[in-house]
Structure formats: structure tokens, C-alpha cells
Amino acid sequence: MKKRILAIDDSKAIRFLLQTVLGKDFQMVTAPDGGAAMYWLSKNGRPDLIIADPELPDMDNWELIAEFSDSILYRDIPLLAISSLDKEQTREKCAEYGVKEYFMKPFNPLTLLETVNKLVNGAPAKSAQPTSIY
After folding, report:
1. What pLDDT band is residue 123 in, cutting at 50, 70 and 90?
2. How confident is the model at residue 132 (pLDDT cuts 50, 70, 90)?
């Protein structure tokens, strides 16, 4: 059975790109905002990875990622951020919230696929500091 990824981004184009690039290898679920993501989680259990934009229309910046990192239910699910916010702020917030990896928009989809494979398939943990790809 394919591992499941929840991708949360308000951009329809980014959700489509993630579905296209990752959908061959993973069961993809996409959500346009934090509310839809939390509703899906409440009904469908736990994904193997959460990909989230820290800037969502129904929440303050980083609010959803903070919720995931503080939650007993979700804090052990690897997080990957895809951000268009300031690169330095993104690096700091990812370190603060335990985000495993982050990408800055625009990003290379093939590099994202490699990173997702490492996170989902249990590659050895990297340093505590998240890494940026782009």
C-alpha cells in the first residue's frame, strides 16, 4: 500500500504540481487551507508526511505548522514546508517548529520528490537543523 501524504497549500497550481509529481509513488491528499486539512485529519487518520505552506488564508502565518508541532497526535509526523515567505524567517521558524525540510517557492519538483522519498521511507535523520532546497 502506498504511503499517504497530506499537502496543504492555498495555490491550486502548487496542489496540482504536488499531486502530479508525488501521486505516482504516494497516495496524495490535498487541502486548500488549514480548516480543510484539520477536517480531513479528524476523519481519516494520520498521513506519513505533511507538506504545508506556512502562509494559509484561514490562519496566521505558521499557525498550522505550530499546531502540528505542538499536537500529541501529529507532532511525530514529519513536516515539510513549502514557503514564499522570507528565507531567513522560514529557516528560523522551521528550526523552532521541528520541520524536517523546507523548500522556497519556486522549487525543483524532482528535488522535492527525492526529499519526500527520504522523509517518508525513513532515511537516516539529518541534523536537527532543517535544510533548504532553493
Report:
1. low
2. very low
Residue type, 35: G
Write out pLDDT tens, residues 46-92.
Answer: 999 999 999 999 999 999 999 999 999 999 999 999 999 999 999 99
C-alpha 35/C-alpha 117 separation (Å) is: 27
- Residue pair 8/34 in contact by the 8 Å Cβ criterion: yes
Which domains are present in the chain? 4-133 (3.40.50.2300)
Q: What percent of the chain has pLDDT over 70?
A: 91
* Sheet of strand 79-83, all strands in order from the earlier edge strand to the far edge: 27-31, 4-8, 49-52, 79-83, 101-104, 131-133
Burial label for 110, CB within 10 Å (0-12, 13-18, 19+), is exposed
In contact, 47 and 6? CB cutoff 8 Å: yes
What is the distance between the alpha carbons of residues 25 and 61, in angstroms, rounded to a whole number?
A: 30
In sequence order, which ranges of the chain are alpha helices (DSSP H)? 12-22, 34-44, 63-70, 87-97, 109-120
Alpha-carbon distance of 19 to 21, in angstroms, equals: 6
